[in-house]
Amino acid sequence: MGRPEKPTHIFSKFAARTSVHGLPHLIGARSTKARLFWSFACLASIGMFLFLLWQLVWKYYSYEVVVKVYQVCIKIHYFLWQMQLTQLHEL
Question: Is residue 1, in this structure, part of any structural domain at all?
């Protein structure tokens, strides 16, 4: 059996091959300034994503439903009642 890989080595391999923007630049940065810049860029992107996701979920669950109810009064019940009575009298 081989020795297990360190988590930092696993993350480095993942970050070098991923399509997530910024992570390959973060791992491949040679200077501390570049590493700080790419760290900030990645964290800012994740933060913006989470903020927009929160806004979208909040807007979805606070969606107001507008229901319009119309009341129509028809005196057809009385008319049918009268018809039934007249039909009974004819028997």
Answer: no
Predicted structure pTM score: 0.53
What is the C-alpha to C-alpha distance for residues 59 and 51, in angstroms, rounded to an integer? 12
CB within 8 A of 22, min separation 6: which ones? 38, 41, 42, 45
Structural domain tally of the chain? 1
Query: What are the tens digits of pLDDT across the range 1-21?
Result: 577 788 777 777 777 777 777
Residue 2 lies inside a defined structural domain of this protein: no
Distance between CA atoms of 63 and 60, rounded to whole angstroms?
Answer: 5
The pLDDT of residue 74:
58
- What is the span of the domain harbouring residue 18? 7-90
Structural domain includes residue 14: yes
pLDDT lower than 70: segments of the chain: 1, 72-91
Sorted by sequence, the CB contacts under 8 Å of residue 27 that are 6+ apart come out as 12, 15, 16
